[in-house]
């Protein structure tokens, strides 16, 4: 009887220990926390930096800058979008800057903001990127920017003024680079959709931001709601004209997908460099599909190849075998590792 009692006690102990192990291993890993960073480098307009570093970040993670809307903050963009949860999944770092202006809007109008190394808010944001590269091993070849409204405008400003820093951007409900240029922070003509330029004129505004720059230009994803009463959807069409000109692709779409990525919406692509999503029926506060932006950046480990093409993806870096110069490159062009971009 004593032996049986000891055996039953031993079995009970094993069961209890096993259950404890199962319970322990079933607990989900706690998410990382948003942190504020100070003294991150040159910051002429005294903007604030908030940083999200996932627990499972690799040695050389990609960097995404998420720029908030007017009257918002970096923590607002962190809480109001899915970029942090996607960072947990895919291992990139997210920078959430906060504007210092009294209305919480970004400087997208001054000559300083619209000039490479000119100062103002863009200089502070670029300092944040440099800080993450230096202190967290961020990969300078995989830096991206996204934002909504004023943040969407700042996305286009950063892509235009700092093509050497950013590899791609996703602008939600923004306006073309330079559309708000002027002495006042608010440009009624641009906002109401009465500013129209040729593609060449829009492209020249971008090229003038960094005279003499001959390097590669970032790819651009544009989103806009057709019922936007704050920044008229006309700006969406003008931005398409601008970025197709800057990137040297035709204004005629290479593909058009109805009811994509949501019913009634339309996605048009212009080569692999420009992607535009018209959100039918959506107001200014449109849906921010963070996963679609992350996919466009190539940070989800997937890519949509061109018809008849095969993507060769490096399983370590998540980057693709690419031909310098893109699909139109002449025979003999160099092969390289590049962000997967179809």
Give the key terms.
single chain, 342 residues, alpha/beta, Rossmann fold, 10-stranded mixed sheet, two-stranded antiparallel ribbon, 9 helices, globular, disordered N terminus
Overview of the molecule:
The chain is α/β, with parallel strands linked by helices and 342 residues long. The longest helix is centred in the first third of the chain and has 25 residues, at 2-26. The model is unreliable at 1-29, 303-309 and 325-330 (pLDDT under 50). Helix 5 links the parallel strand 5 (143-148) and strand 6. Helix content is 31%, strand content 18%. Strands 1-2-4-3-5-6-7-10-9-8 form a 10-stranded mixed β-sheet, sandwiched between helices. It has a two-stranded antiparallel ribbon with strand order 11-12. Helix 7 (199-209) crosses helix 8 (234-247).
Summarize the structure.
The chain has 342 residues and is an alpha/beta fold.
Low-confidence stretches: 1-29, 303-309, 325-330
Structural Rg = 23 Å
Count of DSSP strands: 12
Q: Could you state the order of secondary-structure elements as H and E?
A: HEEEHHEHEHEHHEHEEEHEE
- Biggest sheet strand order reads 1-2-4-3-5-6-7-10-9-8
CATH superfamily annotation of the largest domain:
Alpha/Beta hydrolase fold, catalytic domain
What's the CATH architecture of the largest domain?
3-Layer(aba) Sandwich
CATH class category label of the largest domain: Alpha Beta
Helix content: 25-40%
The CATH topology of the largest domain is Rossmann fold
Integer count of domains:
3
| Helical/strand content category | alpha/beta
Number of helices: 9
